[in-house]
Amino acid sequence: MGLFNVFKKKNIVEENEQIAENDPLENFPELLSAKLLFLDKPNLNSNQILTEVKKHFENVEHSFSENSLIFSFPDHPIQFADATIPVQCTIMIPDQGKSEVELPDAAFQQNWHWPEANQIAKNCTYEILVTDLMSRTLPYKERLNVFMDFLVAVVNITQPSAVYSSPAQKILNPLNIVSTWETDKIQMLYVICNVRLYNISNNIDDKELLMDTVGLHSIGLPDFQIRFSTADENEIANLLWTYAYYAYEFGDIIVDGNTLEGLKTGSKWKCEKQFSLVGPERIVVNVTPD
């Protein structure tokens, strides 16, 4: 693959013997959402979507209207003080007659994984929004599984030309979303996470780059950022993906002063939690090369 190969992950050595309690620097889960983009208005068959969703969820309740399709999953309950309700996922349909795609500028800036992404998205004229609801208090792994199973079901039936991930600020090939998710789900973060590259130098002769992850914050985990000047960008990108999957596996356990293995075996790069240098504003683990 090309730049930022998510498959090339290496082992890391961590020194996270102390787990912070009540760490004030933390991200709180946000809405998970994706825009499905179409060249022309699709034929949204709610019954076909329901049938496909039922392939992923044994128990499904639904409520359909002109502008929204709501699916509830009783096997994934959320407990409130006075009630228990099922997690929901929705498909929001534009008002009749609306035919336009609205994406932020950030959507077109960091699509290293799919060279055709920008042009295909700009050619699209219709969008639908897929989100989760009432799910932020679910354990993040369970929550991501629910959202991804639902998203893949909708993509399989509607066949969009592109998908914009709001948490990751990137445009995705729908075929890749389905294939990566259905291959033993080995790339849990493919849809909701991205690795980005920025030149933060003020001086042409003194190059300084910043690379970070974005999207982990949406499930309540810290993102990561690294400032560097001489390292290979692809190697830093692969390292950030490794850190991202480490955080996904073990949770928000990195505290100030812990170290993560860097590019060289046995190297120890110091960690410090701080506010991100590049938006969206969120908490990141700033990793400093030794």
UniProtKB/TrEMBL annotation:
<protein>
    <submittedName>
        <fullName>DUF4261 domain-containing protein</fullName>
    </submittedName>
</protein>
<dbReference type="Pfam" id="PF14080">
    <property type="entry name" value="DUF4261"/>
</dbReference>
<feature type="domain" description="DUF4261">
    <location>
        <begin position="212"/>
        <end position="286"/>
    </location>
</feature>
<dbReference type="InterPro" id="IPR025357">
    <property type="entry name" value="DUF4261"/>
</dbReference>
